[in-house]
Amino acid sequence: MLRDGALNGKTIIVTGGGTGLGKSISRYLIQLGANVTICSRRQAVIDETARELTEEASQLTGAGQVLAVACDVRNPEQIENVMAETIARFGQIDGLLNNSAGNFISPTERLSYKAFDTIVDIVLRGTYYFTLAVGKYWIDNNIKGTVLNISTTYATTGSGYVVPSAVAKGGALIMTKSLAAEWGKYGIRLNAIAPGPFPTKGAWDRLFPEPLASMMDPTSRIPLKRVGEHGELANLAAFLLSDYSGYITGESITIDGGEVLAAGEFSHLEKVTNDQWDMIEQTIKQANKASKGQA
Ligand SMILES: CCCCCCC/C=C/C(=O)SCCNC(=O)CCNC(=O)[C@H](O)C(C)(C)COP(=O)(O)OP(=O)(O)OC[C@H]1O[C@@H](n2cnc3c(N)ncnc32)[C@H](O)[C@@H]1OP(=O)(O)O
Ligand SMILES: NC(=O)C1=CN([C@@H]2O[C@H](COP(=O)(O)OP(=O)(O)OC[C@H]3O[C@@H](n4cnc5c(N)ncnc54)[C@H](OP(=O)(O)O)[C@@H]3O)[C@@H](O)[C@H]2O)C=CC1
């Protein structure tokens, strides 16, 4: 969507950038000229991704560079180390993509206290720790930075069986809007993306394992009848991290093929056949006549 070089001169930190959607978004940011620091807990995973993205970038003109720094987003000292290494290598930080997450499906009554804490700490605490650290740095250095949080559609609707994740993503979304209001005066923007299903190993292993995968088709309740493509999400993320979205802040943009709309009272009626619609139409028209005393 964006032109080559659209992110030239920008440095963006991507949490969870070694795998899945974070890796795909990082790839696109680098193609557009941004320097990207990827971070997550597993050094070997981010090192391998950095090697792969560096190799791909070497085939392109004007691509950015990649740095891998290990970090558990629940640990403020490790976050500050990621920032220091990024500034030492690239000069400054312009953008933060809070993408790291932990999640799994489970009936809530089966969860231990630690299980609940683990998800909320990664998703909510990790997001506000990183945002606070980078925000303080931007305010101190008069940098008009941009935060983008990867949310989910159930951050606003809620969802059974992923309650810790819903609680944490909901909290992170309210933080996005609240800080957009507070830090707008510094020129700092904060937005979110709420994706529907985008296949990744991390999500599918924990949210769509067997026997669920054999029991249901995740596309059946999506109006567009397909899952998302990583490039589609990367386009939106790059736009929201770029100066082209300079007047958008405090927003959450849904990218889900219309899945949340399926909750509409009558949206499931797509299964009704044309013959059945003929019958329904006649029945309703009879009722209309009856109500006017014409039956
Ligand atoms: C399919 C369609 C999707 C559409 C929308 C989806 C929206 C959102 C998607 C996502 O967020 S996808 C991201 C998925 N990726 C990840 O989760 C990657 C990182 N995850 C992990 O590392 C683990 O899954 C983890 C559990 C989150 C953390 O691992 P860690 O090693 O730190 O913790 P553990 O010690 O293993 O576990 C902590 C605690 O949790 C309990 N637990 C773990 N799994 C389950 C389970 N399946 N059911 C119940 N409890 C579980 C575990 O037993 C520990 O508790 P205690 O037993 O010690 O009390
Ligand atoms: N895939 C989907 O359909 C959807 C995904 N999302 C969101 O998209 C984002 C990416 O998910 P996806 O790519 O699918 O899944 P992945 O499992 O591939 O990504 C999660 C990333 O988070 C990192 N991570 C986990 N815990 C920590 C931690 N404590 N500190 C630092 N990093 C951590 C993991 O790396 P490591 O283990 O090395 O730490 C991993 O790279 C998440 O925010 C998720 O909620 C939202 C809606 C739908």
UniProtKB/TrEMBL annotation:
Question: Which keywords belong to this entry?
Answer: Fatty acid biosynthesis, Fatty acid metabolism, Lipid biosynthesis, Lipid metabolism, NADP, Oxidoreductase, Peroxisome, Phosphoprotein
Q: Which SUPFAM superfamilies match?
A: NAD(P)-binding Rossmann-fold domains
Which example biological process does GO assign this protein?
fatty acid biosynthetic process
- Superkingdom field: Bacteria
What's the main place this protein lives? other
Compartmental location: Peroxisome
Does NADP count among this protein's keywords? Answer: yes
Matching entries from InterPro entries are given as:
NAD(P)-bd_dom_sf, Peroxisomal_t2-enoyl-CoA_red, SDR_fam
One GO molecular function term? trans-2-enoyl-CoA reductase (NADPH) activity
Report the EC number(s), separated by commas if there are several.
1.3.1.38
**Which pathway features in its UniProt record?**
Lipid metabolism
The reaction(s) annotated as catalysed by this protein in its Swiss-Prot or TrEMBL entry are: (2E)-octenoyl-CoA + NADPH + H(+) = octanoyl-CoA + NADP(+); a (2E)-enoyl-CoA + NADPH + H(+) = a 2,3-saturated acyl-CoA + NADP(+); (2E)-hexenoyl-CoA + NADPH + H(+) = hexanoyl-CoA + NADP(+); (2E)-decenoyl-CoA + NADPH + H(+) = decanoyl-CoA + NADP(+)
* Gene3D superfamilies in UniProt: NAD(P)-binding Rossmann-like Domain
What the record says about family reads: Belongs to the short-chain dehydrogenases/reductases (SDR) family.
- What does the record give as the function of this protein? Participates in chain elongation of fatty acids. Catalyzes the reduction of trans-2-enoyl-CoAs of varying chain lengths from 6:1 to 16:1, having maximum activity with 10:1 CoA. Has no 2,4-dienoyl-CoA reductase activity.
Q: How does it assemble?
A: Interacts with PEX5, probably required to target it into peroxisomes.
In its UniProt entry, what is this protein called?
Answer: Peroxisomal trans-2-enoyl-CoA reductase
